[in-house]
Amino acid sequence: MLLSIIRVLPFVSYVSYVTYISFCSLCNKTLSEAFDKYRRKSKFYMMRIRHFLLVLSALMISWAAVAQVSFTVDAPALTALGQPFRVAFAIDAEPENGSLVAPDFKDFDILAGPSVSRGHSVQFINGKQSSSFNCTYTYVLMPRESGTFTIGSASVKVDGKTYTTKPQLVEVIAEKQGASGGTDTTTTTPENRIGKDDIFLRLKVSSSELYKGESLRASLVLYTRVTVENIESLTMPPFDGFWSQELTFDNSPSREEFKGRVYETYKITELLLSPQESGKIVIPEAVMNVGVQVVVQEKRHYDPIFGGRQVYRVSRELKSAPVTINVKEFPAGAPQSFNGAVGNFSLRSTMPEAEIDANSADQIEITIAGTGNLKFITAPRIALPESFEVYDTKVVDNCKLTPTGTSGSLTYTYPFVARSAGTFTIPRIEFSFFNTETKAYETLATEPFTLVVKDDGSTTATVPTASNYSNYGPMRQLDRDIRFIHTGALPSKAAAAFILTPLYWLVIVLIVALFILVFVVLRKRIRERNNTVARRMRHADKIAVQRLRMAERYMVEQNRHAFYEEMLRAMWGYISDKFNIPVSNLTKEKIREELYRRNVAEATAEQFCEVISRSEEAQYAPSTTGEMDEIYAEAVEVISKIESAVKK
Amino acid sequence: MRDRLYNIICVALVSVASVVSPAVVRAADNETTAHAGWNAGIEAYNAKEYAAAVEAFESVVANDYASAEVYYNLANAYFKLGQQATTSRPFAGGELGRAVLNYERALKLDPTLDDARYNLDIAKDYTNDTEAVPESFIARLWHSMAGAMTTNGWVILSLSSLLVTVVLLLFYLLNGAILVRKVAFFVAIATVSLFILATALSLTQLKAATTSSRAVILTNDTTPVHASPDSASKIIREPSQGVTVEIERSQDEWSEVRFADGEKGWVRSTNVEII
């Protein structure tokens, strides 16, 4: 198969070259026509594509050139004394007849061989014919004694050229006596024909004692001396207390010696375990159910032709032994900057330029590279000056899982903007880890770095101007300090509390006394005023009567003007005194209102007003004596009417 | 007879003068010393000579011229002195406790002194004082209201509202106009309420300013707090200097203290000082 691919390679490379040429020309044409302004960019990509294809085709051609004859040996690295094994020399070309020179196998007995097998295949791919050929010489050998032996080089000639194999080491061990329980023929049931030691599961750990943060490799391996038909089920143990990651591993079967016996081994799984706590951690058993083939030589029905072999299938539950891992705490004396990093690391830093402008962004880069618990490393702290605006640290994780732990690098980027001008020192950045090889703490540190921030002229950090104020964001509390003392003259002694003192009660008593005094005095005065009003009201009709008498006298004297004047005074004054309304506030409307309020008949009120109107008219108009009589009589009548109505 | 009376009056005057005049002279003396101390303190503080500032401000207090400002300046000087200390750690001489004590004294005299409250808050950051059991909303509102003015401020408010009430009552009782009487009546109800509120707040303030159960722990480092007044008993807490406690009772040379979170214990009386 491989051979056929190799044969085809030149053709493939030719096809790809043609494709590449046509692609290139096509690209050139279309790109130059259609995307003129992107020509530069596209040329760059074109260059890259060209580059890639060139490399690819060169690689293919070189493969084709290497496609030479290969001559290899296949022999087990480990075998047991008393067990025959197979050694095969394989060549992928037609060897010259009888040109094989086999090694002398001086330490082994040759049970059979060389048996030759040849194979030839012809393939047509796209009308092209290709053929492959192989030829295998097989020997069956039996070791004579235990030890490590060399199977020497074999050589063969192809087209006049000689090819040789590399010498191969074979370790022969003497298996323990009585261990071959599996071949006990006296027991009858097929289940019993498989001994406990013939097939078992084992959890192999790379170390059983380690520090917290270190990691170990655990692989679950199936050891067998019998044919395993299939795996029915597999229950992995819970790796409590560990952070486990699956590793990629080579799952081809191999041979291994265990307790003096040789086993076929199959790696089921391989994990990288990092303990998360200290102390003794037990990994419980893994359970696996397998189907095993058992071949039984039937004694009773022995068939000379078919051998009378009976093949049984036996199910077996396999359990691996629990494994105890001792996780040790870190020794005392951890440096300040130790943060649980375990392994072997190196520190690299990229500082900004020594001189930068104020308000320009820059960054510090710290790279931690090495092998260890990189996944659990936290970013080293950098004490940047207060006037630096620091942004979130970015991490670029460039780690991969290896059987010895996580290895690779972590790059931390600390972006910042220097806000104010000045010369600043960035102190050394420390990173400590526990070195698992030397079993000691190691501290890596960068050199202190002096940074000059030049004033960019536009701003100063202390006096923000309106134009760049928004750059500052909300005011930040930098550090708290107590407020300054109170200066000025010595303040007077602390005043004693005034409340509940005699003076306080005195003030309260004074206020209450003031209230009482003012109240009493004012009330008396008010009462007196009220009394005069009442008297006036009582005497209203009397005064009116006196005035009317006065008017009567004027009427007798025929003094018209004085008569009407007295009449009006009598009437207005009557109302004013009776209802305690100042004369200046009185109108006819007001009189009507007041009378109405006091339940005096409307007609009476109207009559009263008319008397007033007529008196006013008559005061300055020439008139007869009879009129005066009339008005006088009417006034007396209406006043007496009102008097009687109000009194009611 | 007359001469005798004259003599008696003379003797009485002289004896009164002999008693009073030294007191007057002493008071005047105190005043000049206090003034000198105050000015010297400010100067020393400005020159960052905090030990001298502490001494000067203490002399002001000793001369009976204590006020909220003096206590505040004294506390500041103590705090700065403790921070300035060149020994291995700050406040090694117990300055933090003294600073807290004097801030508390300043606030006791004048709860409206904002700067003292601010600085006390900073000083408390250096102690391991526990969080106080939160008061109810009403109690918090009441105390923050009471703290808005000094006792005398509240008293003046209460008395003036009483005076206004009286005037309004006179209006209500003696005025004839209905509208005036109505307005006077309702405003009088409001001022009477204000009088009651202000009096109550001033009494609250008076109580806070006169209770002497609050104390500050004064040591160079931490103080062991025992479960009982006995140095062999279990140590239940180790408050640092500057932790404020309430003294519940005293027995021999021990005081039972209650912490802000309600825990109680016994400390030696020499380790606490009443605010």
* Quantity of strands of chain B, as a count: 7
The CATH architecture of the largest domain in chain A would be Sandwich
Protein structure class of chain A: alpha+beta
Roughly what percent helix of chain A?
Answer: 25-40%
* Helix amount of chain B: 55-70%
Looking at this structure, what is the CATH superfamily of the largest domain in chain B? Tetratricopeptide repeat domain
Q: What is the total tally of β strands of chain A?
A: 30
Poorly predicted segments of chain A: 26-35, 178-185, 459-471
Strand content of chain A: 35-45%
Describe the structure in your own words.
- The complex is a heterodimer of chains A (648) and B (275).
- By secondary structure, chain A is of the alpha+beta class.
- Chain A has 5 domains: 2-67; 72-173, Immunoglobulin-like (Sandwich), CATH 2.60.40.740; 190-327, Immunoglobulin-like (Sandwich), CATH 2.60.40; 330-454, Immunoglobulin-like (Sandwich); 533-647, Four Helix Bundle (Hemerythrin (Met), subunit A), CATH 1.20.120.
- Chain A has 8 helices and 30 strands.
- In chain A, strands 21, 23, 24, 25, 26, 28 and 29 form a 7-stranded mixed beta sheet that branches.
- In chain A, strand 25 and strand 26 (405-418) form a beta hairpin.
- In chain A, helix 1 runs antiparallel to helix 2 (39-66) and helix 5 runs parallel beside helix 8.
- Chain A is rod-shaped, with a radius of gyration of 62 Å.
- Chain A starts with a helix and ends with a helix.
- In chain A, 19% of the residues are buried.
- Mean pLDDT of chain A is 78; it is low at 26-35, 178-185 and 459-471.
- In chain B, strands 6-5-4-1-7 form a 5-stranded antiparallel beta sheet. In chain B, strands 2-3 form a two-stranded antiparallel ribbon.
- In chain B, a hairpin with an 8-residue loop joins strand 2 and strand 3.
- Chain B contains 8 helices and 7 strands.
- Chain B has helices at 2-46, 50-62, 68-84, 95-109, 114-125, 137-146, 151-174, 178-210; strands spanning 214-217, 225-226, 235-237, 244-251, 254-258, 264-268, 272-274.
- Chain B has 275 residues and is of the alpha+beta class.
- Chain B folds into 3 domains: 23-124, Serine Threonine Protein Phosphatase 5, Tetratricopeptide repeat; 137-210; 214-274, Roll (SH3 type barrels).
